[in-house]
Amino acid sequence: MNSTSAIRLAGMLATGILTAYTPCSSAIEGLTIVPQIAFQHKNLDFSQSFKGGENADVKGSFEATLPTLDLAITTLYQKAYLSIKYDTSFGNNFTYADNGFTKANSEIERNDFSVTLGYDVWKALHVFGGYMKGNTKITPDAKYIDYPGAQQNNEQCVDTAPCFPTVISNPAQDHELRNLSPYQQKYTESGYFLGASYGLPIKQKGTLSFSLAYALMDGEYTDNYLAGTDTPRTFRYKGDSKGYSLGLTWSAALTRKSGYFFDLRRQNYDMDADDKTGLFGGNAETEETMTTATVGMQMYF
Question: What's the CATH number where 120 sits?
């Protein structure tokens, strides 16, 4: 491939996909396959508020730092490319969360999946679109909420949990007392996105890339409270979610068949969801903002 193709590949990384490389041959003329591995420092800022219904004016938030593994594979042919990308947090990442029904030190997990189709429309300018799905999972510690007068031991519980009203407990404590699977909340957004990127070569040392994308998605907020019992009280909020992504990337070649990149990115998702079970009524508004710093490598075949 020629140097124009190398710049074009650099621009594609601005979508969160791949980086620049020194041209190399491939088994099929015009076809390049690019596997990628990267590590990411992700800061997740989460906030939630309820409007109407039983939980009117209830608010909560948390902030978590999530080490994340990023894997992708991309196929480039002539001016088009197709990429599949997956990233997932790893390790035990705990923070205090006081969003709805938690109020406890909680384990936070995040994973994202996307399929992207892009095209080189002019020099180093690219347009792209595709499908994405993201999940945030919150698993609170089982505990009694430290309200004044709350009892702090299981002996005060009635024979059948949840411990009410003599003991004030969080849902995770109720699950532990009933020997149920851990209580969890899940936030999911899935849908389609469109965007553009531009790669600017810097004196043949590398490429500085910029990107902007916008997504329209479906959003869902669910839990598993008392699932598996005769009286489940699981809730399900569902509605629309919208989001944007802004990225700045530096990329350069290591060898003729490998490259590296540094990527700074900010993503924001807003979900406005209505209660679909009739359990609480009203709606839940959720905002997730992720600020990420990523370093990674790629190979070219």
Answer: 2.40.128.90
